[in-house]
Specification:
Largest sheet: 9 strands, mixed
Protein name: Transcriptional regulator, LysR family
Pfam families: HTH_1 (PF00126), LysR_substrate (PF03466)
CATH topology of the largest domain: D-Maltodextrin-Binding Protein, domain 2
Organism: Nocardiopsis dassonvillei (strain ATCC 23218 / DSM 43111 / CIP 107115 / JCM 7437 / KCTC 9190 / NBRC 14626 / NCTC 10488 / NRRL B-5397 / IMRU 509) (Actinomadura dassonvillei)
Shape: rod-shaped
Helix content: 40-55%
Low-confidence stretches: none
CATH architecture of the largest domain: 3-Layer(aba) Sandwich
InterPro entries: HTH-type_LysR_regulators, LysR_HTH_N, LysR_subst-bd, WH-like_DNA-bd_sf, WH_DNA-bd_sf
Structural class: alpha/beta
Number of domains: 3
GO molecular function: DNA binding; DNA-binding transcription factor activity
Length: 308
């Protein structure tokens, strides 16, 4: 049985109004055409749907049942089409963002809050991890965009600079370095240095800075994540150096931040998208919000700046 939405809409109008004349005006369809549509339905179903008199049209029992079915189907169609229109306007849908934990904690809350205030039906999936994993997720189509440490980008991806955050020294409360107005990387090399895993952008930046300073840390204590390092610094086990956004992840631990010089080191952060895939409406809206916040110099944590 194959009944079209056009047929069901025409029949429902006639049944509701009890008149071919009123239904034809409502639908802006010629009355003879409307009559042919209803007759076609009756032939398809093999039953009489309407009792016609000179004064009124009334549903037969079969016609009343079809009217109930038609109204449910038409309402479902209207609802789904309305949902599709909202999706196409970027008012509903999902954006998946792969990013570093520091970006997820320090930047994304304000972006997501602004997105939700404008599009309450939009959902954001945050996939946090290392930059390499974020790039792989983007390549595999598991996310719409990636916010990662700047670096080499595969040819199928497009990279746009977004932020830069400055490295600073993190030392225990009461440590002699805590009273200094600034430290050098050479100063840190003489202490037990707490280092993140070798696959992190934080570690890569610190290693490059030590190399530029021409020094090598005398003792390295390795830890899997920044939270662990925060606890170790708080306990006086050693010192470390972190980009400013990463410092947000250590807010629970007692420590002192000291500016780092010789050299001054900034970490770049970029937005990556796929060259061969246009972002969906909500993802496009998310990217537009990032640009909007950059243009207005939306406030960022200390020692973090938008790239212009």
């Amino acid at each position: 049985m194959d009944l079209s939405l056009r047929q069901l809409s025409a029949y429902a109008a006639v049944a509701r109004y009890g008149s071919f004349t009123r239904a034809s005006r409502e639908l802006r369809v010629a009355q003879p055409s409307l009559s042919r549509t209803v007759l076609g339905l009756e032939r398809t179903l093999g039953v009489r749907l309407l009792e016609r008199t000179t004064r009124r049209v009334e549903c037969t029992p079969e016609g009343a049942e079809l009217l109930a079915v038609a109204e449910r189907l038409l309402e479902a169609h209207r609802s789904e089409m309305n949902g599709l229109e909202r999706f196409l306007r970027g008012e509903r849908g999902t954006v998946a963002v792969a990013t570093l934990p520091s970006v997820a904690a320090a930047l994304l809350p304000s972006v997501i809050s602004r997105l939700r205030s404008r599009t309450p039906e939009a959902d954001v999936h945050v996939l946090d991890g290392m930059s390499e994993a974020a790039v792989e997720r983007l390549q595999a189509g598991e996310c719409d965009l990636a916010l990662v440490a700047a670096g080499r980008v595969p040819g199928e991806l497009v990279s746009r600079p977004l932020l830069r955050d400055r490295y600073f020294a993190v030392v225990p409360v009461g440590h002699p370095f805590a009273e200094r107005s600034a430290l050098t990387w050479a100063d840190l090399a003489g202490e037990a240095f707490l280092a993140t895993g070798g696959d992190s952008s934080v570690r890569a930046g610190a290693d490059a800075a030590f190399e530029r300073a021409g020094v090598v840390p005398e003792r390295i204590v390795r830890a899997g994540n920044v939270s662990t390092i925060g606890g170790l610094v708080s306990a006086g086990i050693g010192v470390t150096a972190l980009p400013a956004l990463v410092g947000v992840l250590m807010s629970f631990a007692d420590h002192v931040r000291v500016p780092l010089t010789d050299p001054v080191v900034d970490r770049g952060l970029s937005v990556l998208t796929r060259r061969d895939r246009r972002p969906g409406p909500v993802a496009a809206g998310f990217l537009a919000l990032l640009e909007e916040m950059r243009a207005e110099d939306h406030p960022l944590p200390r020692d973090v700046a938008w790239t212009h």
